[in-house]
Amino acid sequence: MSNFIFAEQNGRAIPFEDKIFGINRKAKELEAKIGKDAVVNATIGSLLDDGGKLIVLSSVVEVLKSLDPVDYADYAPIGGTAEFKNAVKKAAFGNFEPDCFTGVVATPGGTGAIRNTISNFSKYGDEILTSDWFWAPYSTIAQEIGRKIATYELFDGNRQFNISSFSEKARELMDRQGRLVVIINTPAHNPTGYSLTVGDWDKVIESLKSVCTGERKATILIDAAYIDFAGDAEECRSFLPKLEKLPENILPVIAYSLSKTFTLYGMRSGAMMCLTQNKGIADEFVRVCEFSARGTWSNCPRSAMTVLSRIYADEALLKKVDDERKGYRDMLLRRGKSFESAAKGAGLAIVPFDAGFFASIPCNNPDEIGEKLQKDGIFLVPLAKGLRVSVASISEERCRAIPGKVRDA
Fold it and tell me: What is the rounded distance in angstroms from the CA atom of residue 306 to the CA atom of residue 184?
């Protein structure tokens, strides 16, 4: 029996408060009580400076300040402006130019791309496959539209990508459903900071080819929100050519967000892009995803689209943005590697980390350990399999200090 007063639960597990935002709220309350310097708030999924202030690219702010009223007050087309579509492909693909058809639809951040992919390429009741370390809102999004999340083990006993677990779960779901949506968060996976290698991608693709026989089909959603904070810009995109000539019954979809790359978190802008050798599939992709957009958020903010379009129309401006971002990316990598090194020195096991906003610590009782750490003024995010640390939101010094505290707890 539902314990709701008026709303219908509809099979969803609805908490009283979002877990991450709830812990962040507690951290801010303690900061107000005992002072910011006495609290380590490693919950935030935004890039902050060493003083805890949000980093916003000054080069992007300059473009924002140059906008005319029509650039932010007028409606944008449901699928995005033509200039934005061209610019966002360049932003997502870098120097890679796909030798195939690409469908592009604007979304409110990467979240909109995830929502639309699940909605359009699975059926009610389907299970969506992702790794056992995953961003919790995947489950929220799936529940909202009548789906569920199923997981495979991300790492094997050698701390490598667990292709055996992936293949086994993919086949199980395909046998049951006849179709499959897979979410792969890479590079700089949230919440672990792990990135699939090109070799890992070869194995994933071969695994999906083996289960996509006859009328069976699979959609691979690559959640690439952190791609521009994962190391060298082109090296991080070295897997993309693997996606351009897949069989017609395997559809890759890129979820790209302007939140991290251009520090436009609150402007809710991003895009979903498919790659296919079949023009009919690309056209269908745009049509169905624009239909879903119209039925949910309608259209996305024109202002962010204009900002991106202007940046990619001006080589000097693009270089300025890239150079500024690189400085912060290097800072983030130093933080992450400092955390990794300190964990090793403290004898604290962490999951494999390459780059990105987050690192994770496996443990059997994350909620209990998380609450214990909060008493010492350290706020981390408990997950199903451990604790997530946002190296993006704390200084290098604090990144080095946390592992010993967690070990003791």
Answer: 29
Query: For 374-393, how does the pLDDT look when each residue is reduced to its tens digit (9 = 90+)?
Result: 999 999 999 999 999 999 99
Contact 188, 229 (CB under 8 A): yes
Q: What angle do CA 243, 249, 252 make, to 5 degrees?
A: 30
Residue 96 and residue 240 in contact, taking contact as beta carbons nearer than 8 Å: yes
Q: What is the DSSP letter of 273?
A: E
Residues 6+ apart with CB under 8 A from 66: 310
Pairing state between β 381-382 and 127-131? unpaired
Question: How confident is residue 16, by pLDDT bands cut at 50, 70 and 90?
Answer: confident
**pTM, entire model:** 0.94
pLDDT digits (tens, 9 = 90+) for 222-277: 999 999 999 899 999 999 999 999 999 999 999 999 999 999 999 999 999 999 99
Among candidates 370, 374, 344, which has minimal Cα distance to 40? 374
Other CB atoms within 10 Å distance of the CB of residue 322:
15
Structure tokens at 56: 């916003």
- The separation between the first and the last C-alpha atoms of the chain, rounded to the nearest angstrom, is 38
Which residues does residue 150 pair with via DSSP β-bridges, in sequence order? 129
Contact 18, 139 (CB under 8 A): no
CA 118 to CA 14: how far, in whole Å?
19
Nearest to 328 by CA among 24, 91, 60: 60
Cα(239)–Cα(28) distance, rounded to whole angstroms?
40
Distance, C-alpha 335 to centroid of its chain: 19
Distance CA 382, CA 43 (A): 10
Compute the distance between CA of residue 406 and CA of residue 140 in angstroms, rounded to an integer: 28
Identity of residue 98 = P
